[in-house]
Amino acid sequence: MAVVSPTLTLERRLLREYTTIIALDEVGRGALAGPVAVGAALMDAAGARHRVPEGLRDSKLVTEKRRPDVAARAEAWVQGSGIGWSSAAEIDQVGIMRALGLAASRAILAVSASGVDLSTTLIILDGNHDYVSAVHPERLTVRSIVKGDRDCASVSSASVIAKVARDTLMQELHAQHPAYQWDRNKGYASQEHRDAIRAGGLSPYHRASWAIADAPTLF
């Protein structure tokens, strides 16, 4: 199957109606441990005239070895970027969907702090569900785009930037709790991760409200 390269076709069309676009994508929704992260990438009409960086893809389509380089080029290419986080404890407290909304809202605030006018900005969100509007303190215009991380270069940028940031964090947390092998599984449900939970219980970074012991193995 041929790999689809993201383009700026949709962004260029939308930027005829809006001053700026903030593209969002989440990482870590299905993990057993660690925070969920939402990456945000800012795009304006001038930036959308630039060539898409070589190798930019949805983060799931970029090898782990190449992701840091691709993420660095994506950060240099977009007009601004940021990451919003929601911790495992917050996920336990409010549920994953509201936690995603909180992380997305924080990512938007991080990007817009430089003076972006959100009243003339379109938020494009990978997937089919708007999880940010109900949480963000200001009124937003949001468009959910199925396969946005595959097809839209701005969303691909948000995806790979968030993925590298979260993977780096999980590698740092691995040093505190090496039994779970977060340097390898990044908090997802590998067999080794589940075996370590059964043997040693949960860490403060696990999502304790989830049925972790019975979670399906994802890889």
From TrEMBL:
> How is the cofactor bound, as the UniProt entry phrases it?
Manganese or magnesium. Binds 1 divalent metal ion per monomer in the absence of substrate. May bind a second metal ion after substrate binding.
Originating species: Microbacterium keratanolyticum
So which domain of life are we looking at?
Answer: Bacteria
Task: State the needed cofactors, names only.
Answer: Mn(2+); Mg(2+)
Q: Which GO terms describe its cellular component?
A: cytoplasm; ribonuclease H2 complex
Protein name according to UniProt: Ribonuclease
Query: Which InterPro entries does this entry report, sorted A to Z?
Result: RNase_HII (IPR022898), RNase_HII/HIII (IPR001352), RNase_HII/HIII_dom (IPR024567), RNaseH-like_sf (IPR012337), RNaseH_sf (IPR036397)
Uppermost EC category: hydrolase
